[in-house]
Amino acid sequence: MSNIRIEKLRSALKGKNLNSAVIFKPENMYYLCGYTGEGFILITENKIYIFTDFRYVEQAKKESPYCEIVEYKPGISPYSLLSKVLKENNIYNTGIEENIITLKNFEDLKQNLEGIEIGRIGGVVEKIRMIKDEEEIENIKTAQKIADMAFIYILDFIKPGISEKEIALELEFFIKKNGAEGLSFPTIVASGERASLPHGEPTERKLKTGDFVTLDFGAKFKHYCSDMTRTVFLGKPNEEQLKIYRIVREAQEKALEYIRPGVLGKDVDKVSRDIIESEGFGPNFGHGLGHGVGIEIHEEPRLSKLGEEELKPGMVITVEPGIYIENFGGVRIEDLVVVTEQGIKNLTKSSKDLIIL
Question: For residue 3, what pLDDT is reported?
Fold first, then answer.
């Protein structure tokens, strides 16, 4: 599959009048040639080079046997070797990921690539990555299966007196023990009034009866991420809590029903946002409805007010509306779905029925 990805990149480069590209972003290096070490790669019209140091040469050979390895030594700028390789191939322009390279590295690159025109390709590989192939979807599906298992498991662990940190640690242990490489991102556990924090980091706060408990977490399997959120209640919820939960669930389900090829991310966002705003909670939903998921936890496309990308089959996205009320708490419900020709396939199997512990 890497050959297909490389050809897509080469085609995109031709559209920018470039015949090579330097890739710095680790996720993009892995996506294009399977390499997971340090350094950078050069894609030309007919070759792929990995530039790295002694520590990763053997690894590069094993992970990317069809690539040529260029080893750089201490005290020598790797960009001088890059310049040499480009000129040996009669290449006098190249694209770089300008949104990844630091200013210091760019200055070093520019100094060493004298006589070689430098263009911008930031976001090109990420755009190719938006459409997942079958293997990628299977890896994400497995990652989400592990997360669903973790959610079922953690429900028996949650009780008054347990701290948010203890819940997060237990989730991480379960996820790793059941086949994941690790977490997709640092687990969010926000309870009680802290559930108003969309990205609330777990604290020593101990859960009490009457709390909202929002859990946002994911597993990583073969480099691919999952992402899910559920809000549960510790003890019987009050009327306001029930109302918020009902609104968020409706907003999420209507958005899921609307998703299909050809619609824009901003239009899906509007479906949920309109429902929440009609109930008077518009100011309490301050983030986008969702985002792409793959090798990175946050990828394109975006489901937000600014989401101009047209949804296509093979895209994997989250749908996660929420309502957050300061000093009171909040609710978020998130599913991970694949866009299909008919609509969606929901990879998240955990119940969205109101759960009272």
Answer: 87
